[in-house]
Amino acid sequence: MVQREIVALEGLDRDAVLGLARRTGVFTEEDMGVLADMFDGCRGAGRPCGLRFCGVRDEQGHLQGFVCFGRVRNSRNTVEIYWLAVDPDAQGNGIGHDLVEHVAMHARQEGAAQVLIETSSTGAYEAARAAYRRLGFVKVGGVPDYYREGDDRVSFARRLY
Ligand SMILES: CC(C)(COP(=O)(O)OP(=O)(O)OC[C@H]1O[C@@H](n2cnc3c(N)ncnc32)[C@H](O)[C@@H]1OP(=O)(O)O)[C@@H](O)C(=O)NCCC(=O)NCCS
Does the CB atom of residue 99 touch ligand 1 within 6 A? Predict the structure, then answer.
């Protein structure tokens, strides 16, 4: 099996990150604004944000997938994945798997015991929920009507030990 290289993303990757997220078709304009703010917030001088943006590129250097993650502030035990997206043209090839394994490796190195990921209960995220289960996450909770009426927050966690 080919070992993909997972690289830290730079400020120059901003358009590629936002373009890829938009192409997945699942994120709202509001989501896109939050993603842009988080990406920019990690790059402002003197503003260590505690988040990492990492990605996978193809042979031509085009971004195929990215993940944004970080240790939950004031938690010793939990690393959270805030964003995970793979270009529609590249989905189903194990890139999401490799990005999640990268997060798990970092989380272990930092002494965390679990990785958390949250998503929506709507149909648009059914594939993501199925993928998370395949990637070793189990549903650990939810908040009814969190995003809007009828759109719950669903929390998945993967224990590392
Ligand atoms: C969810 C997502 C990141 C998965 O990335 P991916 O590269 O396609 O996933 P992988 O190819 O690594 O697959 C990982 C596992 O999930 C499974 N899987 C992937 N897509 C699936 C789907 N649509 N339905 C069911 N299982 C799926 C794979 O079969 C694999 O399990 P296996 O190894 O046991 O066969 C990707 O589909 C995506 O970017 N979706 C749109 C954005 C999104 O919803 N992000 C999450 C927001 S909370």
Answer: no
pLDDT in tens, 51-94: 999 999 999 999 999 999 999 889 999 999 999 999 999 999 99
Would the pTM of this model clear 0.85, i.e. be above it? yes
- Ligand 1 binding pocket includes 127 (Cβ within 6 Å): yes
Query: Which H, E and C letters describe the chain, residue by residue?
Result: CCCCCCEECCHHHHHHHHHHHHHHCCCCHHHHHHHHHHHHHCCCCCCCCCEEEEEEECCCCCEEEEEEEEECCCCCCEEEEEEEEECHHHCCCCHHHHHHHHHHHHHHHCCCCEEEEEEECCHHHHHHHHHHHHCCCEEEEEEEEEEECCEEEEEEEEECC
Q: Atom 24 of ligand 1 has which residue's CA nearest to it?
A: 127
CATH class of the domain whose range is 7-159: alpha beta
Q: How far is the CA of 46 from the centre of ligand 1 (A)?
A: 35
CB of 9 within 6 A of ligand 1: the answer is no
